[in-house]
Amino acid sequence: MKKLVILTGAGMSAESGISTFRDSGGLWEQYRVEDVATIEGYIRNPELVINFYNERRRQLPAVKPCRGHELVAALEQYFDVTVITQNVDNLHERAGSTKVIHLHGELMKATSTRNPNDPSQIITLDADHMDIHMGDKAADGSQLRPFIVWFGEAVPEIERAAEVSSEADIYVVIGTSLNVYPAAGLVQFVPERAPIYLIDPKDVPWTANHRFRHIKKGASEGMEELTKMLKLIAED
Ligand code: APR
Fold it and tell me: Residue 104 catalytic?
């Protein structure tokens, strides 16, 4: 089966009701990034950051995968699909995608403040345990923190994501402004032979790059259109 790699951002979950970051009304208009999404902000005021992510985590049970998530998962019938997402929600998995690389962490997980990327420190939160509180401890005794990659921190999954991108036969980018590195740099790893499709209702800086075939629609409508096109490719 051909390898299909799909890089997604906040726009992928917009139609599920989760706000994006940089659209009007986005998260970064309501909060200062430096207060809630940087390692410095967490060190300065851990309780503010822990509560910011508690609030976002509490929204999750009420939202569900959109048609776009479902169509991404359905492509696994025709391709060897890997999803590389910048999103911290679990909507790709809930829609049925089986190979998902989370570049920026996962809202439903928590970890150690001292060793955040030590697998033995990572725990999965659930409906009965949605909030992290000051004083909650990880296995190593340090404060339990959100399993989120903040600005200023390493992106442990970027090497794997770059390798997967370099092996793509077809590449799809859905719902990301490609503002944030190293995620935005992944398109550079895509082999020349692989077509790159972009699904986004707006132009993003990269559309100036002739390599993109831009489907200027939302995630769900765009995936309807792309699925028809890809099914033809899968058959040849
Ligand atoms: N369908 C598809 N795309 C959409 C939709 C939609 N319904 N609505 C908006 N978009 C597009 C916007 O046009 C924009 O290009 O989704 C993109 C959202 O961009 P951002 O808000 O910047 O989100 P993202 O690119 O995922 O941000 C990357 O920044 O703050 C950090 O860690 C955070 O992972 C996030 C990273």
Answer: yes
